[in-house]
Amino acid sequence: MSTTPDQRLARTFVTLADTLVADFDVLDFLALLAERTVEHLSVDAAGVILSDQRGGWRPAAGSSERADLVELFAAQAREGPCLDCVASGKPVTCADLRADTAQARWPGFSPAALGSGFRAASAVPMRLREQTIGALTLLNQEPIELDADTVAVGQALADVATIGILHQRAAARGELLAEQLEATLQQRTVIEQAKGVLAEALSLDMHDAFSRLREYAHDRKRRLSDVAHELADGTLDPADITVEHH
């Protein structure tokens, strides 16, 4: 049975999100990302650079292992839209690398890309909240200005890949993950104590007490666990939550 482009894109997101396997291979994962990016975005080539965790950036994968393309992806770790992208944390696009502005901005990358047959280059960050771990480069043989929808899909692919990589890194650090889980369970214990304090003080059932607690924290853009700690240790008066509830 044939599938539509939207269905194939949805399957790609599922595949990229499925990192809960024992033999998860990051490099194979990134190669898949580059290949699927070319398929879904109708670009001619795609590549990934990642942080080496020492302040530098290194090529990690490409949609092709063609020698000149591998060299170009290595060059983009030193200069180009990809490096600008990780610096700003925002998408960077260039519709024509022959333009004077592009030549002046990337005097090394632009000639290298043109020499490999690419006229346009863009990049989207691989970023989760404040952590940028790399970027996804999109290359076209014709001078093309990527539209907002194409950039958005590229960013979505990069986002889900970022989550997968960070999940794999966390899983690999078993001790750290165990500490995070232990801390989470400890916070849950404090929340249970806070619910009890609030329920008794305001004659609420536990569900309503928890709802009040969450609403109070959300209204003030505070962490639920911090408010719970204050209730549990008596720093916060339950009556204050009643006054602020709406």
UniProtKB/TrEMBL annotation:
<keyword id="KW-0805">Transcription regulation</keyword>
<keyword id="KW-0804">Transcription</keyword>
<dbReference type="Pfam" id="PF13185">
    <property type="entry name" value="GAF_2"/>
</dbReference>
<dbReference type="InterPro" id="IPR005561">
    <property type="entry name" value="ANTAR"/>
</dbReference>
<feature type="domain" description="ANTAR">
    <location>
        <begin position="171"/>
        <end position="232"/>
    </location>
</feature>
<dbReference type="InterPro" id="IPR012074">
    <property type="entry name" value="GAF_ANTAR"/>
</dbReference>
<protein>
    <submittedName>
        <fullName>GAF and ANTAR domain-containing protein</fullName>
    </submittedName>
</protein>
<keyword id="KW-0808">Transferase</keyword>
<keyword id="KW-0418">Kinase</keyword>
<dbReference type="Pfam" id="PF03861">
    <property type="entry name" value="ANTAR"/>
</dbReference>
<dbReference type="InterPro" id="IPR036388">
    <property type="entry name" value="WH-like_DNA-bd_sf"/>
</dbReference>
<dbReference type="InterPro" id="IPR011006">
    <property type="entry name" value="CheY-like_superfamily"/>
</dbReference>
<dbReference type="InterPro" id="IPR003018">
    <property type="entry name" value="GAF"/>
</dbReference>
<dbReference type="InterPro" id="IPR029016">
    <property type="entry name" value="GAF-like_dom_sf"/>
</dbReference>
